[in-house]
Structures are given as C-alpha cells and as structure tokens.
Amino acid sequence: MTRRRRPRPRPVDRADRGADLHVHTSHSDGTLSPGEVVRSAAAVGLSAVAITDHDTLSALALALPEADRLGIELVPGIELSARDEGREVHLLGHFVDPDHPELRSAADALRASRRIRLERMIDRLADFGLIVDPEALRRAFPRAALGRKHLADYLVRTGQVPTHRLVFSRFLGDDGPAAVPKAGPTVAEAIALIRRAGGVAGLPHPPYDLSMERLRSYREAGLGALEVDGPSLDRRRSSRWRLVAEQLDLVPIAGSDFHAPDRPGRWVGSITTPAADLDRLRRLSSR
Fold first, then answer.
1. Same domain as 196, residue 103
2. CA 122, CA 118: separation in Å to the nearest integer?
3. N or C: which end of the chain has fewer CB within 10 A?
4. Cα 10 from Cα 89, distance rounded (Å)
5. How many helices (H) and strands (E) does the chain have?
6. What is the reported pLDDT for 11?
7. 84 and 117 in a common domain
8. Dmax over Cα atoms in the chain, in whole Å?
9. Residues 206 and 162 in one domain
10. Which of 172, 200, 223 delimits the end of a domain?
11. What confidence tens digit (pLDDT) does each residue in 119-129 have?
12. Does 193 share its domain with 94?
C-alpha cells in the first residue's frame, strides 16, 4: 500500500502546531540556510524548531537571531554519527549547549574523519582501475555528507560499473576491498557526550530490524528519546514505536527530517512533536 502524502501545513496558532525536532540546513546536507529554515518554521506556525545538522553545531549561532526576531523557539541540536558493532547509528541531541567544547571538538573530528575515509576509499578504488574525480563527485552531490552510496552512484553514472549492487558486492560492501570502516564514538559514548553537553539523546528513524534487546541497551546507556514519527515510518511502524517508547519510558519525538523543499512530505513542519512531549524533553535536559 502506498503511503498517503501528508498535506502541506498551513499557518495556524503556534500553540497547536508543536515542534519539528529534526531539520537540516546548508551547514550539513540541507539546501536552506539557517535563517531560511527558521522563517519556514515560523511561516507554518510552529512553536519550536530544532536544527539537527550532521556532526556540526555551526548553524545555531546564525539561526538564533532570526528565531528571536520571529518569536519562535530554537531548540539547539545535532545529529551525531556513532557506530555499533560495525553499523552506523545516528543519534539526535536536543537542548545541547552549542558552545560545549567537548561536543564541538567531537563534531569537528567526525567531519574530518569522513573526508579522510572518502579519500582512502577513492584511492582503493583506483587500485581496481575505477577512477573517481573528487571535485566532480562534490559537484554531483553538493548537499551530501559523502560516503559509499555516493561513490556507488558516481561509478554507475560514469559507466564504470553497471549496477549499484555490483559496486557493493565487489568493492564497497562492509567486507569489500575498497571499503574503509567508519571512525567515531560508540553509541554509548555518543549518548554520554550528548548528556555531558546538557542535552537529551534520541534515536532517529529507528531501523525496521532494531531489536528490543539492542534498544534496551541504548536506554541503559542513557538514551532519553525515540523518534516515533518521521517520513520513513508508516502508520503501523509509528504506532509500534510509540508503544515501545512508552514501555521504555522514552520521550516520543517526531520531525520532518527536512533537507530540501522539493522532497514531498518532508518540508519543515510536515511532521511535528506535540507541545507536551517537547516539554518532557526540555525537562529531561540538564540545561
């Protein structure tokens, strides 16, 4: 069954609109500037918006004056990359201190390691006669945090490998000869870092195969919130995660995972967190 598209939100009373707690800007892989994101949130009547760029806090200082001007709450956030037994896991941090030195240092290190990893994979692909022009790759994917998927797209687009499946099966799969493991903190370390920065750690877009055992281990490490509604979740899975959040005493959060206005159903404010749950999240933070 095809999921019904969410209607584009219309300006209403801000007390009723809630908060979009998962939004990206041009400071990571989004297309809108921090100010444009805030103006978009205000235009649809949101009471609050969280900027959660990938591994960077740099948009927050630019967004805050516009949020103050428009009378909308800016929730300082980040989407932090972590690892769990070879698998990449993202963690949202809400109500973090944007000036927390340890968090800023960790975010800078993650972005630097991503660039180094990409360069190493390009070098390894060259050993197999597969040529990737770094500048052409960046032009092809100007908004992306570049990784294996983008390398595969590039190799298929340039006709060097016929299919994405073949790229991963022969070269870039987890055990492939051109793959380079990701660096970064473990999930437990990332959760602890977010908490030391005064924030609440939340798990966004939970994968369909996430086990209760693993989620409980995240909870025991200090996870405080679970994304229960987002563009990748249908109604059945959303209902399931709401029940799980209640069982584990996690704050249920929701957001659009906004990157660009041209993505149907994923504009700022299309999916929101009710005010009561935002208040729970705020109380859970130590800021």
1. yes
2. 6
3. N
4. 33
5. 11, 7
6. 42
7. no
8. 59
9. no
10. 172
11. 999 999 999 99
12. yes
Smallest Cα–Cα separation from 228: which of 209, 201, 251?
A: 251
17 — alpha (psi -120 to 50), left (phi > 0) or beta? alpha
User: 104 and 84 share a domain?
Assistant: yes
Tell me if 85 is assigned to some domain.
yes
Helix (H) or strand (E) holding 73: strand 73-84
Q: How far apart are CA 162 and CA 154, in angstroms?
A: 11
Final residue of a domain: which of 127, 144, 172?
172
Q: Considering the domain boundaries, does residue 10 fall inside one?
A: no
Number of domains observed in the structure of the chain: 2
- For residues 191 and 218, give the distance between their C-alpha atoms in angstroms, rounded to a whole number: 8
Domain extent at residue 207: 16-108+186-284
| Residues 89 and 215 occupy one common structural domain | yes
Domain contains 152: yes
Residue 56 forms part of a structural domain: yes
Q: Does one domain contain both 271 and 130?
A: no
pTM: 0.84
3-state SS record for the chain: CCCCCCCCCCCCCHHHHCEEEEECCCCCCCCCCHHHHHHHHHHCCCCEEEECCECCCHHHHHHHHHHHHHCCEEEEEEEEEEEECCEEEEEEEECCCCCCHHHHHHHHHHHHHHHHHHHHHHHHHHCCCCCCCHHHHHHHCCCCCCCHHHHHHHHHHCCCCCCHHHHHHHHHCCCCCCCCCCCCCEHHHHHHHHHHCCCEEEECCCCCCCCHHHHHHHHHCCCCEEEEECCCCCHHHHHHHHHHHHHHCCEEEECCCECCCCCCCCCCCCCCECHHHHHHHHHHCCC
Same-domain check for residues 71 and 196: yes
Q: Is 248 exposed, middle or buried (0-12, 13-18, 19+ CB in 10 A)?
A: middle
Distances (CA, A) of 178 to 128, 171, 253: 9, 5, 37
